[in-house]
Structure formats: C-alpha cells, structure tokens
C-alpha cells in the first residue's frame, strides 16, 4: 500500500475551542513494533467533544498540538520491522485498535490486567490519534476484524467495548437492570443486557430522542427523569446539594412507579451508571435491591455527597469501570456482534459525514440527541 509524506488531519492546534483542518500534516512514522493504519471511518466520542470545547478537563490534559480521535477502523498500510516478522498481520488487513496504550511493565500489566495500567496513554488524548488519514499504534493494540463485521461497527468498537465491559461486570441473566444515562454507551448497554438475557431493563435520561433509541435497542422502559420538573437554567450548571436531592427524589419516584408497573417488589439487581449525574446515581442507590451490584462508568464533573446508609445497610457492591479489559472484552464483543447484537443495536448508528464536514458532525454529536456520529475518511 503506497503511503505519501502528508495526510489530512483534525488537529487541536491552539488552546481554544475548535479544531483545525490540516491538509498537509506529516504522516506519522512507525517504530519496529508499530503498525500504520489507513483510516476509513472514525466516530466522535464524548472525549472528543471535551477536547473540541477545550473545557477544564481538556486544558489540563491535552498536549498541543495533537491529532485527536480514538474510535476508528481502517486497513494496515505499513508494518514495523519486528511486526512483519512476528505478528499475524499483513498489509491490507482490515483492523481497529484498542485506544489505551499501556506500559507493559507495571504490576497490573505484568499480571495480565493491562486495563488497570497506571501509566496508560490514550490515543487521540495523550498521543496523536485517528481523526486523520493515518494513525500509528503499537502492534499489540491492533485488532483484526472478521469479514462479517462491517466498517461502521469497526469504527465504534472502542465505546461498544466500554458498554460490554460495564454490562458484563456482573451476571445479568434473569436480573432486573437499571441503566442511568442514555448516551450511546448506555444505549448499547441496554442492547447488551437484552442480548445476554436480563429480565427488565430500565433506562433513564432527560433526552427523548435518546430514550427512543434505548427502547429500540432493548430497554423494557425508558424514563425521562425531567418529567414533572422544570428544565434547569444556565445558573444550575453546577447544581447545589439541595438541587441534587430534589432531582434524585423526583427520579426515585419515577423509578418506583416503573417498578410497580413491571411487578418488581424488591429493587434492581444490577445498576449500570453511565451518566456521571449526581442525582441519577443517588436515585440508583435508593432503588437497588439488597445485595445489588453497581458498575460505575459515568464520571461526575465534581465531587458530590451520597447517602452511605444505602450502600452499607443494603450491602451494595460498587465497581469502577475504565475502558475495556485487554483483550477479553474485544473477543466477547466481536462474538456478540456476529451472534446478533449488531442487529439489535443498529439504531445507535445515527449519523455519517464526510470527514471535511467535521463542524457539522461535531454539532450533531454535541446536540445530545444523536447516537454515534461517524466521520468518513475515505469519502
């Protein structure tokens, strides 16, 4: 595969909102253990929106300049010398990749728990990423795709892996599941729960468009927790403790009504917290069954209090989830996609744009109403 010296790329080139479209950015070089991938499709993540806006997290995290993007699919364009000799990869292979580059030497890496590496670097976050014609990654991060998985699904396997890791952290068969947050990952998690045999799956959010997608993907009930409450004003961007309590109580009432509707008498067995919203987590704690298990993926923007009585006296288990298990999550989601999950969660793939129309794509992705938004680099 012929590779030139320059490529198109979306670059965070200045400490301000927005990205720069660069027509002649240098193609990344590769070391002996790296792979160069010609990107065909890449999807926009919530992390990319933070970088685009250049919010407080991005300001303290993102090196500038940086090629952003970490959810992608493409074809192998070149192999490092050691990769060509040892790895089962060939130029032209259709691949995606794990977005966390780990050190290989810390205790967790050496114990086979790379997803807990304390020295992790993120593709498109700490090192140049995949919103470009080419991305370079270590060979160990590359995942070859079966022919039965289309390119569009290859482009969203990173966030799908988050959903799989979170959902499968606990046994779901026959269980009643509460998912707080119907972003794309929460929506995909609803489909995964249905796919593996959960009984009732209740999803909460404040966006009707995303709740509709959750219903299509397998949710038993999808509840708008803004129902009966006034929409927050701009001054409520950082809610007070009282506001959090009021919102949590309103959400709890809606959830208890849902439990009655479904004939649930004891509470939810499994909670998947995908929102990072304090009131959502508090309403989850209030409606969990004794001995329930919570997988926590959502990241709050700031610290907040909870009622620890709910945790202690109910004997709840709360597990933090970060990224994907390398590489067990990848094997599981590939097989689930081939086994019918792909059709079940198809509605989450809502929008596609040629890469040069990235401004439109980021507007749609940031609207709070879309599922996954994909940039087409081969268009």
UniProtKB/TrEMBL annotation:
Keywords: Metal-binding, Oxidoreductase, Zinc
Domain Alcohol dehydrogenase-like C-terminal: 184-337
Alcohol dehydrogenase-like N-terminal domain segment(s): 31-147
Pfam families per the UniProt record, alphabetical: ADH_N (PF08240), ADH_zinc_N (PF00107)
Keyword Zinc: yes
Superkingdom of the source species: Eukaryota
Cofactors, names only: Zn(2+)
Gene3D superfamilies tied to this protein: Medium-chain alcohol dehydrogenases, catalytic domain, NAD(P)-binding Rossmann-like Domain
Example of a GO MF term: oxidoreductase activity
Similarity remark: Belongs to the zinc-containing alcohol dehydrogenase family.
NCBIfam families listed in its UniProt record: PRK05396.1 (NF003808)
PANTHER family: L-THREONINE 3-DEHYDROGENASE (PTHR43401:SF2)
Name of the featured protein: L-threonine 3-dehydrogenase
Species in which this protein is naturally found: Cyanidiococcus yangmingshanensis
């Amino acid at each position: 595969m012929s590779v030139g010296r320059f490529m198109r790329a979306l670059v965070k080139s200045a400490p301000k909102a927005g990205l720069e479209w660069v027509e002649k950015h240098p193609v990344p070089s590769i070391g002996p253990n790296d792979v160069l991938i010609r990107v065909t499709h890449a999807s926009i993540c919530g992390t990319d929106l933070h970088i685009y806006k250049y919010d407080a997290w991005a300001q303290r995290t993102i090196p500038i300049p940086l090629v952003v993007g970490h959810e992608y699919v493409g074809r192998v364009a070149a192999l490092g010398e050691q990769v060509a000799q040892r790895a089962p990869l060939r130029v032209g292979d259709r691949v995606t990749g794990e977005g966390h580059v780990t050190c290989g030497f810390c205790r967790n890496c050496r114990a086979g728990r790379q997803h807990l590496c304390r020295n992790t670097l993120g593709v498109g976050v700490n090192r140049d990423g995949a919103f470009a014609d080419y991305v370079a990654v270590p060979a160990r991060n590359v995942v070859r795709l079966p022919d039965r998985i289309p390119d569009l699904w290859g482009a969203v396997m990173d966030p799908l892996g988050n959903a799989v890791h979170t959902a499968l952290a606990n046994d779901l068969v026959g269980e009643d599941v509460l998912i707080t947050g119907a972003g794309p990952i929460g929506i995909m998690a609803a489909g995964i729960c249905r796919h593996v045999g959960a009984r009732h799956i209740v999803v909460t959010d404040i966006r009707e468009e995303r709740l509709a997608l959750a219903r299509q993907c397998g949710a038993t009930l999808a509840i708008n927790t803004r129902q009966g409450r006034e929409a927050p004003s701009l001054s409520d961007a950082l809610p007070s403790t009282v506001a959090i309590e009021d919102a949590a109580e309103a959400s709890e009432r809606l959830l208890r009504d849902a439990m009655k509707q479904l004939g649930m008498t004891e509470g939810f067995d499994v909670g998947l917290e995908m929102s990072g919203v304090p009131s959502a987590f508090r309403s989850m704690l209030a409606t969990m069954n004794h001995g329930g298990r919570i997988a926590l993926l959502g990241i709050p923007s700031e610290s907040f209090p909870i009622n620890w009585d709910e945790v202690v006296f109910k004997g709840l288990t709360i597990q933090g989830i970060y990224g994907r298990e390398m590489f067990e999550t990848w094997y599981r989601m590939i097989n689930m996609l081939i086994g019918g999950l792909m059709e079940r969660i198809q509605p989450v793939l809502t929008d596609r744009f040629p890469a040069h129309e990235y401004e439109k794509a980021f507007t749609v992705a940031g609207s709070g109403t879309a599922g996954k938004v994909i940039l087409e680099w081969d268009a």
